[in-house]
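Reference record:
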Amino acid sequence: MGGTGLIVTLIIGAVAGWLAGQIVKGYGFGLIGNIVVGIVGAFLAGWILPAVGISIGSGIIGAIIHATIGAVILLVLLRLVKTG
């Protein structure tokens, strides 16, 4: 991955983490935390969504939606573990 790919990945992770934090209220991790949540969420969605037969379009918007879905799943799971 080149420098541009890394920057795009970080931006997508930050946007996805921020969107997931807005959807799942009560979670604000700051810029670095949002990037981590977004990137981990993208990997999680990359594993879960194809397993259930869901396909999201390509491109940056598709990547943001994909990562946001995974980040929301991650935050919900973290909430369940934290309160359980």
The chain has one domain: 3-83. The chain has a mean pLDDT of 85. Residues 3-83 form one domain. The helical segments are 3-23, 30-51, 59-83.
